[in-house]
Amino acid sequence: MTNFLKSNGVVMLIFATVVLTAPIWLAPIGASYPDLLQKFAIFGIFAIGFNILFGLTGYLSFGHATFLGVGSYTAVWAFKLLSMNVIPAILLGTAMSGVFALAIGYLSLQRSGIYFSILTLAFAQMSYSLAYSVLTPITNGETGLQLSQQDPRIIDGLFGVPVEAGLPSTHLFNISMSGLSGFYFCAVILIIAFYVSLKIFRSPFGLKLRAIKSNQTRMKYTGFNTRPYLLSSFVISGMYAGLAGSLMAVTDPLAGAERMQWTASGEVVLMTILGGAGTLVGPLLGATLIKYFENIFSALNLSELHKIFDGLPDTLENIVVAIINPFVGEGWHLMLGALFMIIVIFLPGGIMEGVSRAFKWIKRILGFDKKQPVVTSNVTPKGEEK
Amino acid sequence: MKKNTPTLNRRGFLKVAGAAGIAATAPLFFIKGAYAEDQKFRNDPGKGKTVKLGFNVPQTGAYADEGADELRAFKLAVKHLNGEGDGGMMNTFKPSSLKGTGILGKKVEFVTGDTQTKSDAARGSAKRMIEKDGVLMVSGGSSSGVAIAVQGLCQEMGVMFMAGLTHSNDTTGKDKRRYGFRHFFNAKMSGAALGPVLEKEMGKERKAYHLTADYTWGWTQEESIKETTEGLGWKTTKTVKTPVGAGDFSQYITPILNSGADVLILNHYGKDMINSLTQAVQFGLRDKQVNGKTFEIIVPLYSRLMAQGAGKNMQGILGTTNWNWALKDEGSKAFVKSFGKEFGHPPSQAAHTCYVQTLLYANACEMAGSFYPPEVIKKMEGFKFDGMGNGATEYRAEDHQCFKDVLVVRGNDKPKSQFDLLEIVQEVPRSQVEYDAKIFGGDLGPYKV
After folding, report:
1. Domain boundaries, position A83
2. Into how many domains does chain A fold?
3. Is residue A192 one of the residues assigned to a domain?
4. How far is A27 from A270, CA to CA, in rounded Å?
5. Quick one: which of A102, A354, B49, B88 is 20 to 30 A from A249 by CA?
6. 3-class SS at A281?
7. Is the peptide bond before A313 cis (omega within 30 degrees of 0)?
């Protein structure tokens, strides 16, 4: 089993199958509708990218939503100025957030540990305020940047794309980017993004990043200059965020400043830790779980709860509903908070630690245990901050 | 890595995955083409026994109070449409095609969502309603930024949007959409209604200082009020934009004290307005004498919920409102009675507009004899009705804006009950607040999407 999973091809095959069939296997839990599927894929990319920085080097950035926002704004501007085709938007969005990541990363990486986190948070708040009020002509402030009929769209104009009566919609060579086709597009990009991350994890570069996490001082003594490695991992993860941001604009051509708020930066940290920092698929799981909670649990109300527990006897049903009700609907944050606490306390390695523990347990029960040395998790529960 | 799996295989795999993605997409592409044909439309209830409506309101954030009241009104409207309860305004609404048997004989169900007063979140929850729950119409709001964002989405998706509380000129101005309708009044109408009253009470020589919520509603309200006051001969000392949900406004209020202005115009709403007004009063603005005149505060968009929050600070302050529960016409009385019986307190203007919008949508479907949006829209455009609490009202076809009388109100000095907070100064007739639909530009877009 373990050897089997060492092959990149096999991992990718399993991963791609799971992702591309998501509309089918997510249907029973009510999550199989295009918008949520798109969000799973997009935030999956965001979290996978964040994990390249946080999971590998242990540098906790509290400002990654900045790059998400930059990607979104750039993509919407590309739709406005160049073309409704998504290719230029995605390329420009990713590149632009790369530039921002280079600048912010260069300055923030002058420090490490908590000071690094605070610096990134400060930059994120600055960018948010800029987007929210100062740069209103570029970002349209609180209202958010939207398409309009009068936008120039130079490339579309060159190719003689007719101007329709309504607002134009985004497309990939005339394949619509809303609905399920939008999801498949995001899913293919997610698979590519995952593959790149897999390659990084299993490369000498990834090993060096991990070395930075385990003991940066020792690494420096052996003659490595760690700064370039850190900076490139910061830029890569920033570009992942930019890619996610531009995909958000692709599936829904609107960019608002709230995407850059510190809560959005915090969310990706939660996703990564919840799923398992430093593991390959953990962040993706975390992203899926949080988005599922946000979209499904937040919409449950009293009458729907009663419907779910219809099978129970009346008194029992009322008791169960009364207990669960504060945790759904407006209270979904409460549920998420409780879950987060439980996971951090009992499974510091996130959901992935739970999964691997479960596997070991099953093996032991079935007698497949070959007395392997116990593999400890990648993440140490305490003292990972340097 | 010792053993490198052949690269080609992986690439090949990716290609296959990509192709699979595109192949799976292709049928959808054809469906999209077919959709425009004939009378096919999104979420067609067909022969089903029920129809679903989506109510998307702020349940968290600065406008949460309004959102909660809107939701109550929606629930009441659904009840009345299904023939339960006392029928409320269904009994006074005319010309009405409503039968109290749901819409076109189908029972009305609803789903709810939280806009969080954020465009992203609002579009997310509207998409969930449209794609997952299959709603035929989305309603709600309580922030113009959100309303405009959701209205745009609904146009793209071909689902009707019946705006709730949104007061920006842009909603039915430069950002108007064929699938979006607004019953609530707007900043332009507030300005036109307030003008004569301000002139009478405060004279022609005033210096105004604006604090403005920094988004589409604040911007257009500032613009419209400025236009009105400058038309009276007032001067505008300064306009300052404040972020939505700021909480603490003291840093914006201190500079007013020495600005030489003698009127403060608060282009704020919801909890923001409660906070900024309370702080302005605490800073002693209303006790000041500037330029030989008493310093005045104006809140162009007023609501009873805000008056409740601001308490005594609200007394004597002028503003406008779309509707007030103290109105004495048959429609208002019926609605207040039925809402009060259900929830134990009178409805707010936000609740009123949402209730009316739901009934109007249902009525237009009945008139069209179908849920097919282009037909429903055509029935709604230019529809004239009465008995919904605002007197004779018309949905103007050119911009989907309702035209009706506007109320100028003042915070009540001696409230008789905890709800008796606004005193109606004047019912400004519709003719005084009407304007040309062309002045804001914008384009409604196509009937078929």
Report:
1. 4-278
2. 1
3. yes
4. 25
5. A102
6. coil
7. no
Which of B10, B114, B132 lies at the smallest CB-CB distance from A9?
B10
Who among A12, A143, A180 is closest to B13 (CB)? A12
Say yes or no for a CB contact (<8 Å) between A142 and B214.
yes
What percentage of residues in chain B have a pLDDT greater than 90? 17
pLDDT at residue B19 greater than cutoff 70: no
Mean pLDDT along residues A217-229: 89
Q: What is the pLDDT of residue A372?
A: 53
Contact A236, A66 (CB under 8 A): no
Q: What is residue B409's three-state secondary structure?
A: strand
Would A270 be classed as within a structural domain?
Answer: yes
What chain B holds in terms of domains, given with CATH numbers, is 50-185+325-404 (3.40.50.2300), 188-321 (3.40.50.2300)
Q: Which residues of B touch A164 (CB under 8 A)?
A: 446
Q: Where are the alpha helices (DSSP H) in B233-347?
A: 250-257, 270-282, 304-310, 330-343
Q: What is the pLDDT of residues B30-70, one digit of tens each?
A: 444 444 446 788 888 888 888 999 999 988 777 888 888 99
Is A141 a member of any domain?
Answer: yes
Average pLDDT of every residue of chain A: 84
- Using the beta-carbon criterion (under 8 Å), do B28 and A132 form an inter-chain contact? no
Minimal Cβ distance to B25: which of A7, A175, A195: A175
Q: Enumerate residues 232 to 271 of chain A having a beta carbon within 8 A of any beta carbon in chain B.
A: 252, 254, 256, 258-259
| CB neighbour list of residue B157: distance below 8 Å, 6 or more residues apart | A178, B42, B127, B130, B449
Examine the predicted complex and report whether its ipTM is higher than 0.85: no
Single-letter residue type at B401: Q
Cα–Cα dist B59/A330, whole Å: 7
pTM of this prediction?
0.81
